[in-house]
Design a protein that fits this description.
This protein is of the alpha/beta class. The chain is built from 10 helices and 16 strands. The two termini are 30 Å apart. The structure holds ligand RRO.
């Protein structure tokens, strides 16, 4: 039994790999992912210049998840360009993730990775911890259109979008219009749920320092939201666009639920943070056992097979 899958035409040895943002910003961390059973090496979202990220404390483990406002700590895109050739020897797909603070920055970042040896490029439109003036780009469809106009012809590598939790499916329909118009071959759904707040009732304080305690929530808490987003996108896009599910995948059963909803693969973040790199093999094994028990012989056979009552 294998959980091999494909995203935007690229082969992945299993259904499970790391989510961007968790222990993936230094070479040592990326090498640990490379040596694990994660079926790909997903890089931390990078920016033009290196960033230290937000002030501490900026993250906290919770009983059912994880909460943070990291603020994009990363080495800067040039450093990741240098690291990619060293990661190539692990023979897994490498996925770059980029965040620009202007359309021009996005263009520079995407052009650079188009000319690198990465396999896929993800445009992270949905970081919840960046304070922007006005509407964040991910809710501004005119601005996204402008961005896609600017970066569509920079190279041949598949470009995907990292999307937020949409709590209204009309916004997903609008996004799908753009995805179809620009032939975007993959999406990752969802980012951590922004504008969240965790309170310590004993101390009567917030639990992280940046942005007066607001941050992005992930883990078990957000799985139903992620499943809903993935399923809606699957209904709207069918098999034309690969969907990477992310949000609360802790067990093989969670992964199987994302598979039924229509995800081509899943990324694991919170559980990787809490359990370490052995989680990729464990979740994949659990998924294989479920598929076997149910008589499925491939990922493709079960994908999207959710039935309605
Ligand atoms: O670095 C972060 O604060 C961060 C990013 Br870029 C993101 O996309 N999602 C998130 O929860 N945190």
């Amino acid at each position: 039994m294998s959980t091999k899958t494909k995203i935007a035409g690229i082969e992945f040895d299993s259904y499970i790999f790391n989510a961007s943002g968790i222990k993936d910003d230094t070479f040592e961390e990326l090498e640990e992912i490379a040596k694990s059973k994660s079926s790909a090496i997903m890089l931390k979202s990078c920016t033009i210049g290196p960033r230290k990220g937000n002030e501490e404390p900026r993250e906290i483990n919770l009983p059912l998840g994880y909460f943070q406002s990291e603020g994009l700590p990363n080495l800067g895109y040039k450093k990741y360009l240098e690291l990619i050739p060293k990661l190539k020897k692990y023979k897994k797909p490498i996925i770059a993730s980029v965040v620009g603070f202007s359309l021009e920055e996005y263009r520079i970042l995407i052009k650079a990775f188009q000319e690198s040896e990465v396999d896929l490029i993800e445009i992270n439109l949905s970081c919840p911890n960046i304070v922007e003036e006005g509407l964040p780009i991910v809710y501004d469809f005119e601005k996204i259109k402008e961005l896609l106009d600017k970066i569509s012809n920079l190279g041949e590598k598949p470009i995907g979008l990292k999307l937020p939790a949409y709590l209204c499916y009309v916004l997903q329909e609008k996004m799908v219009n753009l995805i179809e118009q620009y032939d975007i071959p993959f999406i990752s759904s969802i980012n951590s749920v922004g504008n969240s707040l965790i309170i310590d009732p004993e101390k009567e304080t917030t639990v992280i320092k940046p942005q007066r305690g607001f941050g992005g929530l992930s883990g078990d808490y957000i799985k139903p939201i992620a499943l809903g987003n993935v399923r809606r996108f699957y209904e709207l896009l069918k098999d034309e666009v690969s969907i990477i599910g992310v949000g609360g995948i802790r067990t093989g059963q969670d992964a199987f639920e994302f598979l039924l909803a229509g995800a081509d693969a899943v990324q694991v973040g919170t559980t990787f943070e809490k359990e370490g790199p052995s989680c990729f093999e464990r979740i994949n094994k659990e998924l294989e056992e479920i598929l076997q028990k149910k008589g499925y012989t491939s990922i493709q056979e079960a994908k999207g097979k959710l039935e309605y009552l």
